[in-house]
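Hi R.,

Here's the chain you asked about this morning:
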Amino acid sequence: MKLADVLKASVLGLSLLVLPAAHAAAEQAGTGGAPVQQASQQVNINTADVATLAGSLRGVGIKKAEAIVAYRSEHGPFKSVDELVNVKGIGDKMLEQLRSQVSL
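And the predicted structure, written out as tokens:
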């Protein structure tokens, strides 16, 4: 075997070991080191309970999830995703973040 062939095989072998780790590190770099979540289905804000809202929507914790359910209980089902801005703790910026995550 030629020296060039040995070097090619060595580089290929090392890249197979290093690239998966580098790829995983790159994925986590934009999330502050947190594992990257795969895209999930939208959450129906008219039927989801507090646990589902808090566990599925980025930026929504227990308090905001409770506020969403309370608003829905008081005013009836959401007719538009835009109504979320009427929920305490959800402004225009949060609405835009949630828009792709929720459905009616």
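The longest strand covers residues 43-44.

Let me know if you need anything else.
M.
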